[in-house]
Amino acid sequence: MQIFTSLQDITQPFHRPVVTIGNFDGVHLGHQLLFSEVLIRARRSGGTAVAVTFDPHPLKVLRPEGIRLISSTEQKSGLILLAGMDALVIIPFDRQFAQMSAAAFVEDILCRTLGVQELVIGYDYALGRGREGTIDFLRRQGEERGFPVTVVEAHYEDGLPVSSTRIRQLVTEGRMQEVRRLLGRCYHIRGEVQRGRQRGRGLGFPTANLRISEDDLCPKQGVYVTQVICGGKMYGSISNIGRNPTFGENELVAETHIFDFSDDIYGQPIRLNLLRHLRGEIKFNSPDELASQIRRDVETARHVLEDAAKERLLACEEAADQRML
After folding, report:
1. Residue 269: its H or E element
2. Predicted confidence (pLDDT) per residue in 259-291, tens digit
3. For FRET with 218, which of 9, 46, 67, 159 sits at 20 to 30 Å CA-CA?
4. pLDDT score at 129
5. What are phi and psi of 267, to 5 degrees?
């Protein structure tokens, strides 16, 4: 996949581009269906599947206090790559760009720079200053300029449309099983392992620590069943996301005890998949009381991970059966 981080980097229009535009925060199931529609149309016409997004997220500029994102631009780019798109255009977004009219966006960016042949958009998308570029506006523009506009309807789970807003709310409530259904994968945290205060080692449960920025989308604090991906391998684990009230600390951190693991991974990047919220963060009366609770949490987590492995195995078997029919 080609990635362009500036419109100036695009020296000529794409070959018969089928274009979609959006913020794509989280690249959830609804976004994935949008990309699938773009790919089908691009392959049918022998054209290029192009996704257009913005960095930073427009609401980070227009309402910086009002949004915490499911995915960073880097994570979003990786997920769009996995979706199979041919090109990703990341437009720098600032207050000056926010004043661009919808007509100018269509003329200067979609037509002149990208050379749009088909446009595919989500059911609730609008572009340009004040969101004046509604679906009806884009359809009229397409009729005038010769590119068809396809609208992909909402994807529903549990009777409600899948949306980034809904997923953010579920993450803050710790409802990770529901989040997984809407994303099509586990919600995860990434970062480099930081050196902590070594208290977990003293309790018999050494931890890999990731600091969490207050600006990031932070899951509900407490204990989670997790998986750690490190060095290309996956390990079962249990994590506490919080501020360590037993020891009177205030820094927000994810402390992860990795099962059956003893490697030194300080400074190494890891990914932490959050499978299930087990309990809230508790202030214990003593380290011994904390250690006893951790042992119970570990036992519970191992059972959850075993069940998750069985579910994946059954899913693989069902998929194989379907291929044989």
Report:
1. strand 269-279
2. 998 888 889 999 999 999 999 988 887 878 888
3. 159
4. 93
5. 85, -5
Contact predicate 265/230, CB 8 Å: yes
Which of 228, 243, 240 is closest to 297 using CA atoms? 240
Q: Are 61 and 94 in contact (CB under 8 A)?
A: yes
Structure tokens at 74: 């880097």
What is the sign, positive or negative, of the torsion defined by CA atoms of 118, 122, 124, 130? negative
- Quick check: 67 and 103 in contact, CB under 8 A? no
Residue 325 CB neighbour total at 10 angstroms = 4
DSSP letter for 63, please: S
- Rounded to two decimals, what is the model's pTM? 0.87
* The two three-digit tokens of residue 176, written as one number: 């990770």
Run of H or E including 169? helix 164-172
Give yes or no for a contact between 205 and 294, defined as CB atoms under 8 angstroms apart.
yes
Collapse the DSSP code of 19 into the 3-class scheme (helix H, G, I; strand E, B; otherwise coil) and give the result: strand
The Cα 79–Cα 32 span in angstroms is 9
CB within 8 A of 270, min separation 6: which ones?
190, 191, 192, 193, 208, 210, 228, 229, 230
pLDDT digits (tens, 9 = 90+) for 194-239: 876 655 555 668 889 998 876 678 899 999 999 999 988 999 999 9
